[in-house]
Amino acid sequence: MAVRAFNFVSSPVSGKTTLLERTLQSLSQEIHMAVVAGDVQTHNDADRLARHTDQLVQAVVTSGACHLDAR
Ligand SMILES: Nc1nc2c(ncn2[C@@H]2O[C@H](COP(=O)(O)OP(=O)(O)OP(=O)(O)O)[C@@H](O)[C@H]2O)c(=O)[nH]1
Ligand SMILES: [Mg+2]
Question: Do residues 58 and 68 lie in contact, with contact meaning Cβ atoms separated by under 8 Å?
Answer without folding.
Answer: no
